[in-house]
Structures are given as structure tokens and as C-alpha cells.
Amino acid sequence: MASIESFIKSPSEALLNVLSKGQLWELVEHYGIGDVDKRLKKNELKTVLKVKLSEEEILSVANEEVIEEKESVDLFSGLSFEQKKEILKMQQMHSREMANVVKERELELKRLKMDDLLKKREIELLQLKHSQQLESEKLSRDFELQVQRLKLIGEGKMPFEGVPSQERVSRSFDVVGNLKLLPKFNERDPDVFFSLFESIAEERNWPIADRVVMLQSVITGRAQEAYMALTVEDRKDYDKVKSTILRVYELVPEAYRQRFRSWRRGERQTHVEVGRELTAHFDRWCAASNCPLRRWRAWQPATLFRRSCC
């Protein structure tokens, strides 16, 4: 601990700050500083010493600090203990009020930010609903146009590249009536779509050329892009159109293997349909694997056929 002698020999603010309250009172007596309230706390006593010693040019401290501390001393000088206590209470109350004001402003700022965020979300939601409505209206218009086009094709009033010219007028095909029977194209599982599509086509005895017409009316997304990428001649070939679309949605070999292994016969499926679908699943597995599994074709589907039909 620093001693009074050290401070008297070489006065400094640093030494003054480490002196005890008792040592500070000894300095008051040493330098003959009068009119000092005995009830002052250590920090208040230290402030009085700094001001008095700086006025006597015994201690050198920063001017701003001296002025601030001098004002503090002048404020409390001549006041009674009760008056000082009341002033401190008022200062504490003011500090609490200011803290509450700051908190209220922070809460208000957060509330405004939250309101802005909610408004942005509402605008985004309205924009999304509007875009969805526009998309729905567009799909509805496209569907109506497609129905009208197919109706005209069926009546022979509009040529279609997939139907031979000699058949366009002579043959009547109920495009609109059959269009209602078509399953919705599913990009997640095009294999199932084609299975349902071909079942309906065989049940209704659709000609091959008309299958392309009907298929064109329901495909969407990547399937439609794949169809449009074909040549005019290839678009007339149902098998080529089908294989091209399925190739776009090819999965990894393991997915085809699991489909082949886990496939089961539906309630309304005939044995012929069961055999055809098992063979199709197996062929896709072979094609995706790029390995000579086709030699098992005569055995694997037959084995699973018996298990699937049990």
C-alpha cells in the first residue's frame, strides 16, 4: 500500500487513488484543508482533495476532470446530510426513469420492425396468391383451348401431325369424351401414369395414332419439353414418345430395383397387365444398371408374377 510520505514527496493522482480513507484524512490535516464534512465517503473525500490540491497547484490532474469534480464538490458543499441524501435519491430516480425511457424506445423500435416484417410477409403472401391465381387461370385457359383443339381434330376440322390425312375425316374419334378418362400426368411417377394410360387405351381400343393425340394433351413440365424436342416423325410414334419421356425421368438403379421387388398386383388388374408391368419394371432396372441382366428376364418376372398374384 502506498504511504502518505510517498504522496507528499511526489504528489500524483495515481498515488491519491490508492490511498485509504484514513490516509486521505491524514492528507487533509497535513495540507490544512478546512471545512471538510467528516461524514463524506471515501470517493467524495478524494474528490475534495483533488480539487483543493489542484487549486494550490500541489497536484496536477486533467483540467476537464478537475472542473467536473469541482462542480460536484461545489454542488454538495454547504448541504446537510439529509439534503445530500435527497439529491442522491433524485439522481437515482432520474437514472431509473431514463433507463425506462430507453427500454420503451427499444421496445417501440422492435415493435416497428416486427410490423414492417409482418407487412412484408403479407405483401409476399398476396403476391404469391396472385401469381397462383394467374397460373391457375392460365392452366384453365390452356386446358379449354386444348379441349377445343382436340375436339376439332376429332371432327376432322383441324389437321394433326400424328394422324394420317386419309383418316382425319373418315374416322371419328371421341376425343372430348375420352379426354375425361385420362389420368393426371404425375412427374414424380411417370411409370404409373403410363400404366394407367395404357390400361385405359386398351380398354377403350384406342388406335396408336390417337394415343399420341391423347398423350400430348396431358403431359406437362419436362415431359412436354422432351416431346417438343422430338422430330415431327418421331412425334407420331407412340413408343418413341413414351421411351423419350421415361428417359427424362430415369431414376437410379436401386430405385427401379425396389419398385420391381415391391410391386404387387392391384385389385382390378388382369394377369396380362401384371405380367406387362413386371416386365416393364424389370427392363427399366436393367437399362438403368447398364449390365446384362436381361438373361434373367424369362425367370425373374415369372417368379415375382407368382408371388405378386398370391
UniProtKB/TrEMBL annotation:
**What is the protein named?**
Uncharacterized protein LOC122142235
